[in-house]
């Protein structure tokens, strides 16, 4: 299906089209570019103009540029604009304007990507659904998602993130959602904000872009819920959570090694749904997603049944079995949660680990263990040392047999642990990666979690190299 014609893209961006081309996708990366895509030469770490010739050689239908780089043929299909990022924003705005899709925007300190993917799963069962790729939620990711949206989309799910004040409002106004949702407000990005209410005010800016008659969906169990409610003033507000005051309430959650079983009252009607991965935080995200789907006029019961289709994205709690290089085919269970971390998500991940059942009698140690390998939580501001140390007081920590720590901030937690629970502390993930073979045994369940910048994903890779991953 044609996504953009040269004339339409030129009108949307104010640029000048060279050639009468058609494209059926939009790409910013030659590594993932598909034949027929419009290549957008953004300038980030590298200048995308350096890759225009390569993109065209790989079959790009056209390239959006602000200057003609070397190596580009005189008759190459191009869209020449004054500023590439501004033109991408304009293309996204036009992509949003030409569709009749019902649009939901999702933000939150924790869980926005998981919730976005839950919404993709449940809405796809009820109509043509378009959603952001990966965590494309910033100043270029949101317009790129909108520019990629087919005209006949029925439901659209847009993730909106932030690192600094003033980022969410403009992206919400660009998105123009019919429903806007805040999953939660937690201690993340505190380096850029004075306190949690400051983060809540920024998250609440997602309501600035709501269409007339739009619906705000907020977590009603937070200390900062009043801040979110104030930001949503003037719009219909739907609250979700476990508290009795919520309009949509989680009434039961049980964790098994393979799933989360949930019951909820959604608009007074009981819904039972199953998530094919353990995690109390997943239950709350799923409830929020179902409330948002209802606000989009989707069938709530069908959405609840479709929730089983969702699986955590890679690095966000994905569970896999690693078959070790051993003739017996013994395994280690790996929970890969190495993409992001803050105190709230760390507590949720440790609860999942505590609910897992190791396998006894198979390894050299004979007793299967619950092992956590934890990397630094970044961007927590001046209280970062205390926030790391306080993880030792979590109720789930007592179920963890051994904790290995990575990074200068995590040393504060390591120092609070004692006995066998205090494992290894190292300064870098590279050092930890060299130690995993001696730290992990058959039958163990291993959680790896940390902020992306802590690089603990290297440790995940090292564990996978101990054998063959069976996802």
The main sheet comes to: 9 strands, mixed
Shape assignment: globular
Instruction: Please tally the β strands and state the result.
Output: 23
Whole-number mean pLDDT: 92
Would you identify the CATH architecture of the largest domain?
3-Layer(aba) Sandwich
Give a structural overview.
The longest helix has 16 residues, at 280-295. The strands form 4 sheets. The chain has a 9-stranded mixed sheet with strand order 9-10-8-11-12-13-14-15-16, with helices on both faces. The chain has a 7-stranded mixed sheet with strand order 21-20-19-22-18-17-23, with helices on both faces. With 471 residues, the chain is α/β, with parallel strands linked by helices. The protein starts with a strand and ends with a strand. The chain contains 16 helices and 23 strands. Helix 7 runs parallel beside helix 8. The model has no long low-confidence stretch (mean pLDDT 92). It has helices at 6-13, 52-57, 84-97, 112-124, 141-147, 168-175, 196-204, 225-231, 280-295, 300-306, 343-355, 384-389, 411-416, 429-433, 436-439, 457-464, and strands at residues 4-5, 16-18, 22-23, 25-27, 37-40, 62-65, 78-80, 102-107, 129-131, 155-159, 179-182, 215-219, 236-241, 248-255, 260-266, 269-275, 318-324, 331-337, 370-375, 402-406, 422-426, 445-449, 467-470. The chain has 3 domains: 4-82, Udp-n-acetylmuramoylalanyl-d-glutamate--2,6- Diaminopimelate Ligase, Chain: A, domain 1 (3-Layer(aba) Sandwich), CATH 3.40.1390.10; 99-309, Mur-like, catalytic domain (UDP-N-acetylmuramoyl-L-alanine:D-glutamate ligase, 3-Layer(aba) Sandwich); 318-470, Mur ligase, C-terminal domain (Protein-Tyrosine Phosphatase, Chain A, Alpha-Beta Complex), CATH 3.90.190. The radius of gyration is 23 Å and the shape is globular. Its main location: cytoplasm. Pathway: Cell wall biogenesis; peptidoglycan biosynthesis. This is UDP-N-acetylmuramoyl-tripeptide--D-alanyl-D-alanine ligase. Keywords: ATP-binding, Cell cycle, Cell division, Cell shape, Cell wall biogenesis/degradation, Cytoplasm, Ligase, Nucleotide-binding, Peptidoglycan synthesis. Residues 332-451 form the Mur ligase C-terminal domain.
